[in-house]
């Protein structure tokens, strides 16, 4: 399985923290599902953190099975925790119109919305899109998470905004000309949304 650099970094950090846990020195063949369920339950108030551990446990014990250290994977029966779908809502026409009425065409705020609506990519990919990725009426992008290369047709409304973007660098830039981080962009977009009074959420 090929993992993106950010995913590798996150897993490495998670493994380092798990090495400090009381169970870190136990023999791999001694683990049972009930033990793993208890370990994960410590993070029940943080569903995303719990699910990351479930996923990592499954990967680790898959490796143990493949190498003959044990016959089964005790993490397989673990059920994922339900996470809040922050940013999973569909935008209504009224919400889009309200946002666009507030932020004028040519603004970074308007361009951000157009990219999110019409490119259909994760914010980690949107913040890395540059003018050099624009090939006629196609945007070429390699997804950071999956490494998949895509050619995305540019909607006319998106093209209108992209043609007003800075001549060099990213389509989305801060006032100092630097690019956004994915998390920084998420927080900034929420503030733009709130200013417009459009209760839309970003995926």
UniProtKB/TrEMBL annotation:
SUPFAM superfamilies reported in the protein's UniProt record: DNA breaking-rejoining enzymes
GO molecular function annotation: DNA binding
Source organism of the structure: Gluconobacter cerinus
Core-binding (CB) domain ranges (all copies): 1-65
Keyword field contains Chloroplast: no
Keywords for the protein's UniProt record, in alphabetical order: DNA integration, DNA recombination, DNA-binding
One GO BP: DNA recombination
Domain of life where this protein originates: Bacteria
Protein name: Core-binding (CB) domain-containing protein
């Amino acid at each position: 399985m090929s993992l993106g650099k950010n995913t590798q970094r996150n897993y490495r950090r998670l493994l380092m923290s798990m090495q400090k846990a009381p169970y870190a020195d136990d023999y791999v063949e001694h683990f049972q599902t009930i033990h793993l369920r208890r370990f994960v339950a410590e993070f029940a108030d943080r569903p995303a953190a719990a699910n990351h551990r479930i996923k990592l446990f499954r990967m680790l014990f898959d490796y143990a099975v493949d190498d003959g250290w044990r016959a089964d994977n005790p993490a397989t029966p673990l059920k994922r925790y339900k996470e809040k779908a922050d940013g999973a809502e569909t935008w209504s026409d009224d919400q889009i119109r309200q946002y666009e009425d507030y932020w004028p065409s040519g603004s970074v705020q308007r361009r951000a919305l157009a990219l999110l609506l019409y490119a259909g990519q994760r914010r980690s990919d949107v913040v890395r899109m540059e003018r050099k990725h624009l090939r006629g009426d196609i945007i070429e992008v390699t997804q950071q998470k999956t490494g998949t290369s895509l050619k995305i047709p540019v909607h006319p409304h998106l093209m209108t905004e992209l043609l007003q973007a800075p001549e060099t660098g990213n389509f989305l830039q801060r006032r100092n000309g630097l690019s956004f981080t994915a998390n920084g962009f998420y927080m900034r977009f929420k503030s733009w949304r709130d200013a417009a009074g459009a209760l839309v959420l970003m995926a």
